[in-house]
From TrEMBL:
Segments forming a coiled coil: none
Residue stretches spanning the membrane: 33-57, 178-199
PROSITE patterns: HAMP (PS50885), HIS_KIN (PS50109)
Subcellular location: Cell inner membrane
Domain annotation HAMP: ranges: 200-252
Superkingdom to which the source organism belongs: Bacteria
GO molecular function: ATP binding; phosphorelay sensor kinase activity
Protein's recorded name: histidine kinase
Pfam family, one: HATPase_c
Length: 456
């Protein structure tokens, strides 16, 4: 029972470390498509070559070394047999034959105790194979030294005689494996170079599509974009172009429709104003006059934004100038304003639309708060402007609804005192037309925090 509970606890503990290891590995991996594509090519190649090298080289070394060692050992066994069966006066002849016909250097001398054995290397294939061959073929006491380019073998012939045999290492050992390694790594380098060149050509169209989508999200013109690359990338490029054309056509149709509606409604509003003017100063008509003014403000405000979104091009704007306007407006309203700006002063936005976005959020803060703090951070990738005030704020349940057009809070703050409910909706549309967003939260000052974040 205890063993089962221990195993269960161990299995429950596995997902935690596994997830942490996965997250750590994900953070270590590159985020770019080009780098990840190279890893997809390099990692299998390295693994395959490592497996091939380990398996093939082990078998190659062992097989060739076994055959070479067996041949050398057979020659040494023949020399030992000749020494045993020949008188001492024939030793010189045996040594000469071994040197000239077998490439063996043989020294016959009185027996001396063998030196202490040297420790064998971990991957000493030659020590193991040559030692086994000597034990199987010669079957006499021996001492082996494989260090260096010359292998020394001491064999005890009998109690009085000993033969020292010197063999070149390459006679008993596969020493040409470096050629295989050079060819393997050379071929890998060539394949990797081809893969890098090919991947660069395939990644460029994807990067061009990403830049075009990003520029379109910021409202910039992308007339020079044309789909290139693989078929799937071309299809994505053509789909992006069609989507862009549909969005632009929708914006143009909306602008044209609103322009036509504005013309008709302005005519009717003009008639209303004329009739109210002819009616004279009648207190009973004050409410109607206010309704007509609210209707005209609502219409003009929304049409001005729609027309500006469709027609205004991206340009350069200085944050310092925007903050100067905010300070002037704060003084006009008698509010306390503090400003903190960090980063590059020049930003790339739609100047009029972005100025209106900032002015709308600032006006909202001035209207309902006494103290306002504006913080602008312009980094390499993002422009973030934060508005903090000490006003009543907006309930968390209504922070999504206030961005809807014509939505009005009855008992809290709203951007338009006239009740049109377009201020925050227009601010959000301008931010999204720049590829960004506007979010609302709780301010450290006790009121509302509005955060504008758009790509730099």
């Amino acid at each position: 029972m205890a063993t089962t509970e221990t195993l269960t606890d161990a299995l429950r503990a596995v997902p935690g470390p596994y997830r942490r290891a996965t997250r750590w590995l994900r953070r270590q991996l590159p985020m770019g498509l080009y780098a990840r594509s190279l890893l997809i090519v390099i990692i299998p190649m390295v693994l395959l070559q490592s497996i091939v090298a380990s398996v093939f080289m082990e078998r190659h070394w062992q097989l060739v070394t076994e055959r070479l060692s067996a041949a050398v050992t057979g020659q040494i066994a023949a020399v030992i047999e000749l020494i045993e069966s020949s008188p001492p006066q024939d030793y010189d002849k045996i040594v000469r034959i071994a040197r000239e016909h077998m490439n063996l250097t043989v020294i016959i001398e009185p027996f001396q105790p063998f030196p202490p054995e040297r420790p064998r290397p971990i991957f000493g294939i030659l020590d193991r194979i040559l030692g086994d061959e000597i034990e199987d073929q010669i079957k006499k006491p021996f001492w082996l030294d494989t260090f260096g380019d010359t292998v020394q073998i001491r064999i005890r012939i009998d109690d009085n005689r000993m033969a020292r045999v010197f063999v070149r290492r390459n006679q008993a050992y596969a020493s040409n494996t470096h050629i295989f390694l050079v060819w393997m790594f050379g071929a890998s380098l060539v394949l990797l170079t081809i893969a890098i060149l090919f991947l660069r050509g395939q990644i460029r169209p994807i990067l061009a599509l990403a830049r075009a989508a990003e520029s379109f999200g910021k409202g910039q013109k992308i007339d020079d974009f044309s789909p290139r690359g693989a078929e799937e990338v071309r299809r994505a490029g053509f789909a992006f172009i069609q989507m862009r054309e549909r969005i632009e056509r929708q914006i143009e149709q909306r602008t044209a429709m609103l322009t036509g509606v504005s013309h008709d409604l302005r005519t009717i509003l003009t008639r209303f104003k004329l009739q109210l003017a002819l009616a004279g100063n009648n207190p009973d008509l004050d409410g109607l006059n206010e309704d007509v003014a609210d209707m005209q403000n609502m219409l003009e405000g929304y049409l001005a934004f729609a027309r500006g979104e469709a027609e205004e091009d991206v340009g350069e704007l200085r944050l310092s100038e925007v903050m100067t306007r905010l300070k002037a407006e704060a003084e006009l309203h008698g509010k306390a304003l503090t400003v903190d700006v960090e980063g590059e002063d020049l930003i790339s936005v739609r100047p009029n639309a972005f100025t209106r976005l900032v002015a709308n959020l600032a006006s909202n803060a001035y209207r309902y708060a006494e103290r306002v703090h504006v913080e602008a951070r312009h980094s390499a990738r993002w422009l973030t402007i934060t508005f903090d005030d000490d006003g009543p704020g907006i309930p968390e349940s209504a922070r999504d609804d206030v961005f809807k057009p014509f939505f009005r809070l009855d008992e809290a703050r709203n951007l338009d005192s006239s009740g049109t409910g377009l201020g925050l909706a227009i601010a959000l549309d301008i931010a999204r037309s720049h590829g960004g967003n506007v979010t609302l939260g709780d301010s450290p000052l006790g009121g509302l925090r509005a955060v504008v974040r758009v790509p730099a």
